[in-house]
Every structure is written in C-alpha cells, then in structure tokens.
Amino acid sequence: MQTLTHSALNAGQVRWPEHMARALELAALVLHAAPNPRVGCVLVAGAATPMDEPIAEGWHRGAGLPHAEPEALAAAGDHAKGATAFVTLEPCCHTGKTGPCSSVLIAAGVAQVVIASRDPNPKVSGGGIAALESAGIPVFFLSDLEPAARRLNRGFYSRLERGRPFVRCKLAMSLDGRTGLANGESKWITGPAARADVQLLRAQCDAVLTGIETVLADDPALTVREDSLPLTAEARQHTANSLAQQPLRVVLDSRSRLYPRSKIVTGEGRCVAYGIEANQGIEPEAGELFERRSCPRNADSGRVELASVLDSLALQDECNELLVEAGATLSGAFIEAGLVDELIVYIAPKLLGSDARPLLGFAGLTQMSEAWQLSIESVTQIETDLRVVLTPTA
Ligand SMILES: NC(=O)c1ccc[n+]([C@@H]2O[C@H](COP(=O)([O-])OP(=O)(O)OC[C@H]3O[C@@H](n4cnc5c(N)ncnc54)[C@H](OP(=O)(O)O)[C@@H]3O)[C@@H](O)[C@H]2O)c1
Predict the structure, then answer these.
(1) How far apart (Å, rounded) are the C-alpha atoms in residues 281 and 260?
(2) pLDDT grade, residue 126 (50/70/90)?
C-alpha cells in the first residue's frame, strides 16, 4: 500500500481528497451503525483523472445491512469495471452478516482502491488491503484524511483499540454553573432547542448511562423521541435504520434501588443496571429487556467500579459510544476517574445563586495546578443557550 499526503498527489490524483471528502460525508449520513463503523464509498470511472466525476456512491446504513462498497458497486453496475474506489475505511476481508468487501471489489474489477483509514478490527487489520493487493489491485492510503476518518468512527476505534466505548458526558447548567435549585427543582434549565440537541446526542450513541439518584429524582426515560430530533426529512430517511432501535439504557445502582415501574426500565428497548451484588432488586418482575449485572466494588467509593462498567459495555454489548447523562455525583466520578473523552456542556443564560446545586460533585482541590484542564473544541449558540464541546487536556 502506498501512503500519500495531499502534497504528494500527482496531476491525475488532484481530485482524490475531494472524492474522499464526499465518501466521508456519505458515511456521516447515518447517526450510528453500531456495532459496525460508519463507512462511505465513492466510485470514479477509470483511473480517476482530474476530469473524472463520481459514477456511484454508497454508504453503510447499519448493522446487518450491505456495506458501503457493495452499495456503490450495485449502483454503478457494469461501469464499476476499471473504476477507482474511494472508501473511508479499509475494505473488510471477513464474512460477518455480509460477505467480504475486498472480494466484492475484486469481483467487480475495480482498478484501484483509495482508503482514508485502516480497520482496527483484528478480523481485518490489513487483511483487506492484502487481499486487494494479492489480486493485483493497488491500494493507496490518503493519510491527511485519516484524522477525519477516525473521528467519524471514534467509538468503534475506542472499543477495538482500548476495549472501552468513547465516553461523552453531557451536562446542562446555568451561567453560574448550577444545575438545579436547592429544593431540587431543575426543569428546565435550557430551552427546547438545546433539549432537542440532546436528543440528537442520544440518537448518535449506543448507550445512555445515568446514576440511580437521577432515576429516583426525575424518573427519566432516556429514550430517543424521534419526533423531537432536529433532522430534515431527508436526513431522517438516510439514518432510518439507526433510529429503529433505542440506545441501551444503563443505570449505576450499587445498592439495587432501581424500581420496576421506572421509565428507564419500562421504556422501549433494553435496560441494564450495574450493582455490587447480583441477583437482587427487580430482575424477576421487569421482563427480558431488563438485566442486572454485578460489578467489582471501587475500594475508595464503595460503589460500582466505573472502568469495569465500560469494559463490560464494550465486551457484552459491543458499545462504541456511551453518553453519560447523570447528576453531579456520577458525572464528577467519571471525570475524576479520567474516563470522559468529551464533555458537552449546555449553558443557559440564567443565574441560580450560590445555594443552587453545583455542576460536579468533586471537591477538595487546594492548588490551581490540580484543576481539571479542558480544551474547547467548539462553542455553538443553540437559540437561547450555548453548547460548549470540550476535551480533557492530557
Ligand atoms: N444538569 C444536568 O445535566 C443533569 C443531568 C442529569 C441529572 N441531573 C440532576 O441531577 C440530580 C441527581 O444528581 P446526583 O448527583 O444526586 O445523582 P447521580 O449522579 O445521577 O447518581 C448518583 C448515584 O449513582 C450511584 N453510583 C453508582 N456507582 C457510582 C460511582 N462509581 N460513582 C458515583 N456514583 C455512583 C450512587 O448511588 P449508589 O451508591 O446507591 O449506587 C450515586 O449516589 C437530579 O436532580 C437530576 O435532575 C442533572
């Protein structure tokens, strides 16, 4: 495989970044394809000279459905012979719910394949590239687009490379960093548009996690309400498969206090509660979509060990992306444990005063150098509120 940076492209390759950018755009049409990665494919006739236009496009619509490459090849028909295939991720070489994409590309007679990222799946990991090359099809790696391709599937990479999901923690607060009044009233801090944006975050993840105190206080369903999603009809249609199933809902409940009629248990889709001791609580009454799992106890807090929960979600549920929507205690514990990959904070232009509830439950810092340092990825105004996306600084 030849690695190419944009500056090393020859005259016949100058439009390659444009074709790959389109393939990335196609991949992003679905909100998630878990447990699979999101993948896009663009086919360009012939050897992809500067004059060539794409002849077909395809993208992976979700687990169990055709991958991006066969979708594009089917759209191209006989024109696929001799074409250049731009694929955001190395084509697979194993048979899962669908056949190997490398074989399909070989059978269609494409002339060359350009990729933007390698597949971290041990069942593939270079095997797709090797299969194409042994069939005489050159493979090129557009390395400048690799960060965008990895970002598109950061949950998939996280699960396969680190053995745990990518963790986003969502919080909503007032301008003075408060999440509710001293008497517990917290609805609503942010406006309807910010709350609709949270629906989108839920729809993008595989699992939503909260703490038992939030369940006891608010009884949230934590499901995706499809009609609340800020999507156009076309975008909704493109991602229809990912909206067909609710994200897994996860409750951390060390002492088995979850009750059977809570919305998180009775809502559509599966719910898992992690506690210290198994076989307690509500399992017998709650039905087959509810499962109670036991977890090691954290020696310091005496509560559920957070890293074990993440391991379990990756291993047992193939969870790529996890959204934490918890109160100050559990969100703070995730941050203190260094397990948050991205923080999304919605800020409402309201002031709640110093007796109102704080954003995060950790305390005890004595020096500024001990502060949790974050860097700002983006700041977006969503009608009356702000959304700030941050990542922890290593
Ligand atoms: N502003 C926001 O974005 C937002 C989002 C969600 C909720 N809320 C509000 O937050 C309030 C509840 O907050 P909260 O802080 O009391 O509850 P929380 O963070 O939702 O839940 C905390 C509970 O989780 C359990 N837990 C299990 N393992 C844990 C671990 N390793 N570390 C920490 N906790 C663990 C603990 O109970 P056990 O020890 O019994 O297991 C703990 O008391 C509600 O009023 C809700 O409205 C606000």
Answers:
(1) 9
(2) confident
Q: pLDDT tens for residues 10-67?
A: 988 999 999 999 999 999 999 999 999 999 999 998 765 556 789 999 999 988 888 9
Q: Whose CA is nearest to atom 21 of ligand 1?
A: 211
Q: Which residues are annotated as catalytic?
A: 69
Task: Tell me if the domain spanning 154-392 has CATH number 3.40.50.2300.
Answer: no
Give residue ranges with CB within 6 A of ligand 1.
Answer: 171-172, 179-180, 184, 186, 210-214, 217-218, 252-255, 257, 298, 301, 303-304, 306, 325-330, 333, 361
Q: How many CB atoms lie within 10 A of CB 337?
A: 14
Ligand 1 centre distance from Cα of residue 216 (Å): 9
Ranges for all domains in the chain classified under CATH 3.40.430.10:
154-392
Q: Domain 2-152 belongs to what topology?
A: Cytidine Deaminase; domain 2 (3.40.140)
State the pTM of this model.
Answer: 0.93
Cβ neighbours for 244, distance < 8 A, ≥ 6 positions apart? 62
